[in-house]
Structure formats: C-alpha cells, structure tokens
C-alpha cells in the first residue's frame, strides 16, 4: 500500500455525530444545542435569512426603481425533436397543450406552451404535425410547414390584450393604450416670431 492510497481513503468513512449520549460522549449534556432559547427545543425550525428578530438584510437595503419581472410570462418549453421522438406523435397528429400533458412532455396547462425548433441533430422533421400552441419559433414553424404540417399560434393573454396576431406577417400591436412618444420640439425647431413692436416694417 502506498501513502497516496491512504490519503485518498482518509475521511471517507467518518463516523456520524451521535448526540444525546450524556456528558461522557464528548458532546456535553445539551448535545451542541446550547442553553435555553428556541434552538434548544424540539421541533424548532428557522426560516431562511432569519436574523434572530433583527430586521433582515433584504428589508434593510434600499428599494429603488421599478421592475417588470413580476409580469414576465412563464412558458412551458418543448422542442420539436422531443415531440417527434415521443410514441404519441411518432406517426404525426395534432400537437396541443392537452396532448402534450397526456404525453408527459409538459406538467400542466397552467402556463402557455412555446415550441422550439431543436431536432436533436436531425436535419428535417420526418412526420406531419399540426401544432397549436401559444408561441412557435420561426425555425419550428418552417420545419413543420416543410414537412406538410400546419402551425397555429393562439398567443398569450398579453398578445390578445395588445391586439397582436401571431399568425400574420405583421405582428405589431394594434391596441396600443398609449400613443408613441414624439420627439420633443427643440428651441431651434420653433420658427422665429415676428419682429418686436418697436421695429416697423420697411416699404
């Protein structure tokens, strides 16, 4: 046996800390819990970032600005390669959120579905699929249509509110609640005013 073989195994089978075995065990009568307080009682659990009743850090730091992160739309992401490789769609068929849930490719229908065009190394889609989802990437749309299938994007709630038609070439919003901002007029853009009262016009 060599010395480097010993050091590799050192600490691999460390005995666990056996608490509650009295003062002679080396861990004292309180088993490392200390004296009194919530931590010494059975059933105690401490929430994350708890600082003993002191105002925690996330409440002490300054709050500035505004973020739209809470309004972000979360999608279930599915690749075309995973759909084509599944037995339920091996011979083609209609791909809907309900069918994807039954196939086990997404968890539920609480989120909108977005279909991406990754085929896991394949060049083309070998089956005819009729895809109906909230979002379909341009790559996935081309692969499906080239294979003879159809794509229908239902859009998200935000798309419907803004009047965006995901199936047309023009995907600009039609129901804008606010008008586009116009460039503020600058001083040099304003035409010069007429001459003052003291000046008279020449004949």
What distinguishing features does this structure have?
6 strands; 203 residues; Ribosomal Protein L15, Chain: K, domain 2; alpha/beta; 11% strand; 6 helices; extended; 3-stranded parallel beta sheet
Describe this structure in a few short sentences:
With 203 residues, this protein is of the alpha/beta class. The protein contains 6 helices and 6 strands. Helices cover 19% and strands 11% of the residues.
Can you describe what's shown?
- The chain is α/β, with parallel strands linked by helices.
- The protein has a domain of 92 residues: Ribosomal Protein L15, Chain: K, domain 2, CATH 3.100.10.
- Helix content is 19%, strand content 11%.
- It contains 6 helices and 6 strands.
- Strands 1-3-5 form a 3-stranded parallel beta sheet. Strands 2-4-6 form a 3-stranded parallel beta sheet.
- The mean pLDDT is 87.
Silhouette: extended
Q: Which strand-content bin applies to the residues? A: 5-15%
How many DSSP E strands? 6
Order of helices and strands: HHEHEHEEEHEH
Could you name the ranges where pLDDT drops below 50 across 5 or more consecutive residues?
Answer: none
Residue-averaged pLDDT: 87
Give me the secondary-structure category.
alpha/beta
Identify the CATH class of the domain at 71-162. Answer: Alpha Beta
- Order of neighbouring strands in the sheet with most strands: 1-3-5
For the report, how would you describe the main beta sheet? 3 strands, parallel
CATH topology of the domain at 71-162: Ribosomal Protein L15, Chain: K, domain 2
Distance between the termini: 118 Å
């Amino acid at each position: 046996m060599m010395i480097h073989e010993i050091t590799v195994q050192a600490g691999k089978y460390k005995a666990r800390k056996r608490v509650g075995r009295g003062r002679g065990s080396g861990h004292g009568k309180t088993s490392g819990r200390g004296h009194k307080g919530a931590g010494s009682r059975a059933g105690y659990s401490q929430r994350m970032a708890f600082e003993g009743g002191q105002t925690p850090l996330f409440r002490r730091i300054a709050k500035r600005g505004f973020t739209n992160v809470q309004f972000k739309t979360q999608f279930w992401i599915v690749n075309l390669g995973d759909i084509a490789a599944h037995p339920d769609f091996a011979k083609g068929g209609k791909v809907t959120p309900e069918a994807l849930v039954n196939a086990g490719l997404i968890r539920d229908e609480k989120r909108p579905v977005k279909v991406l065009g990754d085929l896991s190394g394949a060049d083309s889609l070998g089956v005819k699929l009729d895809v109906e989802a909230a979002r379909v990437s341009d790559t996935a749309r081309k692969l499906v249509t080239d294979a003879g299938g159809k794509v229908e994007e239902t859009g998200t709630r935000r798309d419907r509110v803004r009047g965006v038609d995901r199936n047309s070439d023009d995907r600009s919003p039609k129901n804008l609640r606010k008008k586009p901002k116009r460039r503020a007029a600058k001083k040099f853009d304003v035409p010069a005013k007429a001459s003052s009262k003291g000046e008279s016009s020449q004949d």
